[in-house]
Amino acid sequence: MLVEDLTPWQGYVATLVLDGGETMIARILRIDPDDNTLIVDVLGSNRPYPGSDQRAFAIPLGRILSVTPAPAGLGPRRPLPPPDPCRLPVTDMPRRIAFMMLFFLILGPGGAFLFYWLVGKPNGFQWASMIVYSAAVPFLTFTRTRGLKRHYLFRCPFVRPQLPQLALRHAGFLAALFILETAAFQYQSRLPAFIINGNVGSMPTFDFILMVLCIALLLVQVLTNRKLLDRAHLEYLPA
Predict the structure, then answer these.
(1) What b/e readout covers 43-55, taking b as 16+ CB neighbours within 10 angstroms?
(2) Which run of H or of E encompasses 65?
(3) Do 117 and 219 belong together in one domain?
(4) How many domains does the chain fold into?
(5) Residue ranges of the chain with pLDDT lower than 50?
(6) What SS3 state is found at 74?
(7) Straight-line distance from the first to the last Cα atom of the chain, in angstroms, rounded to the nearest whole number
(8) CB 41 within 8 A of CB 77
(9) pTM listed for this prediction
(10) Burial letters 66-83, b for 16+ CB under 10 A, else e
(11) Cys bridge to 236: 14, 35, 158, 184, which one at CB 3.0-4.6 A?
């Protein structure tokens, strides 16, 4: 079903028919458009569900075949929970715009200047890479992009307690980036000739391989950061 078909049902108790022959009576809590899921409080079902210690279950919208009013006399087991603060509209637009501008300045002209200024100095390439890397990580971790559809605002109650752990993880990944690039430059002369002298398009093969490895490291950190925040978000949601 579509989001607009389910929106009027929020806060109501309804009978949901799902694919696979499942029928449940549930209170519809909210719709998560980022994940295309319906969050419900299951009151009864022809399939087993955990007990009262967990009430919020996510159902993919594609599984829902129909929604009809629940039988008379059934009501919700608890008051409607407060809205998720991480799904409220963004109001601090000036700060958000400033953050975006800083990100693009560092990754664009700022990054080019850093490499121009530092390359040639001891470990200059590594330091420039670490600065640009440090700008990309928070942007891709906290903001919504085409491939990463969920954003995490600093106002979210569960985000700030995770910042020390995220900072510690970032320090570890920076150390890995520094070691990777230092080892690559140290052993560059021992690599096969086609890597040293070849080209991938207009880029030297060695530079291309090093760039791919650094991007892979970045993606590993970003995806694991977001998994950590996802888990913290689920634990924060009221039961």
Answers:
(1) beeeeeeeeeeeb
(2) strand 64-69
(3) yes
(4) 2
(5) 52-54, 77, 80, 239
(6) coil
(7) 25
(8) yes
(9) 0.60
(10) ebeebeeeeebeeeeeee
(11) 158
For residues 200 and 228, membership in a common domain is answered with yes
Whose structure tokens read 């969920």?
Answer: 150
Backbone angles phi, psi at 237, to 5 degrees: -55, 135
β-strand partners of 78? none
β-pair partners for 60: 37
Q: Residues 204, 115: one domain?
A: yes
Please give the Cα distance from 97 to 22 (Å, whole number).
46
Containing structural domain, residue 8 = 3-81
The token pair that represents 19 in the structure block: 């694919």
Other CB atoms within a 10 A radius of the CB of residue 217 amount to: 16
Instruction: Please tell me the distance from the alpha carbon of residue 139 to that of residue 218, in angstroms, as a whole number.
Output: 12
Q: Return the structure tokens found at 204.
A: 């030297």
Per-residue pLDDT tens for 190-204?
888 878 777 877 788
Cβ–Cβ under 8 Å, residues 96 and 90: yes
**Is residue 57 a contact partner of residue 40, using CB atoms and an 8 Å limit?**
yes
Task: Write the CA distances from 179 to 10, 47, 124, 174, 215, integer angstroms.
Answer: 52, 52, 13, 9, 15
3-state SS assignment for residue 15: strand
Task: Give the span between the Cα atoms of 105 and 95, in whole angstroms.
Answer: 15
Query: Residue 133 corresponds to which tokens in the numbers above?
Result: 């890397």
Pairing of strands 199-200, 37-45: unpaired
Dist. CA 31–CA 42, nearest whole Å: 15
